[in-house]
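Page 42, continued from yesterday. The earlier attempt failed because a stray header line got pasted into the input along with the sequence. Redoing it now with the clean sequence only.
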Amino acid sequence: MYSVESLVRALVNVSEKAANLARLCRANEDIFKLLVQEKTKDEANPRFVRDFKTLADVLIQEMVRHDIGKEFPELKENIRGEESSTFTNSLGETITVEVGDSLEETANLLEKVLYGNKLVADLLAGEVHRDITTEDAAKIEGLDVEISSADVGIWVDPIDGTAEYIQGKARDTAVPNIPASGLRCVTVLLGVYEIESGRPIVGVINQPFAVEADDGKFSGKIFWGVAIDGVKRTNVPQAEAAGAAAGRKKVAILSSAENKKYIYYLRDTLGYSIIFSAGAGHKILKLIQGDADLYLVSTGSTYKWDTCGPQAILRALGGGLINLQETIDTKTVVELSYARNSGKCNIGGVLGFRTHTQLMEFSKLL
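This time it went through. Structure tokens are written below.
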């Protein structure tokens, strides 16, 4: 049995290590050149791996598996993520990216993946093996709940909003508090779920590029939530959870590719202001923070790693994420499930809500 409190602290700390890696990759010129090499085949430098953005994703994912697995050994085999850890470098060598027991071991493996770029390998390995204890983790207390490691799994999305991350635009066109695109739409998502029931019970969202300083450097924000055995806790300020702007027009946050019939219904029938924004994790975060009231994606274009962590935080606030098509077909509310053998894709689309009032209003269409 494990303490939920200790697990949440570990997830918050490792999310900040992930954020540091994401910021390092964007801030360092040597790494950034590798990140953009694969935009076109003719522009690519043959010395480097073909898709360094995937290496950044995989390294974060493997770091999460290493750090959480070290502290909670029985959980390691139940940690799953978006990326494959196998790489083929420019020499045709197939390499499995892993975090070693020592900084030197990890650096040597990364140097091989990066075709001899020792500077970048050492920088990345140093961040992977750095000990971090965040102020956010230090404030977590009073979660007197235990879980069995055999009963839970973890979904990891190491960098959600990859296109925004690669483009690297710091400033973007946005309505108040909701950027349409850019680095603020990038998130690191960690979610713990019960394998048999499929319920998400712990969520962590790290927003690595939340705040830009005058010198161009970024700092992040961390959000967490727990919803298990009647215990509902989150660090999201209650003022945000209740709605960021009292009396403002209702906001639905969507992808610009959303089905027009839903856009028209939300806007013309229910009176929502429609806001388009990037990143599934970021859009749900805006729901969590109270900047939006409804989140909708009507196609199966999101995955378990996109939604597990954010859904747990929403549940802690009294909201949730439901399977849109299953709810329409069965005429009953069907929450997204992460149960064993439930697959990776959220087939049928997703509807996210902060309060049941919004859910019941939208259900008129269902």
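Notes: The chain is about 35% helix and 20% strand.
Reminder to self: strip header lines before submitting.
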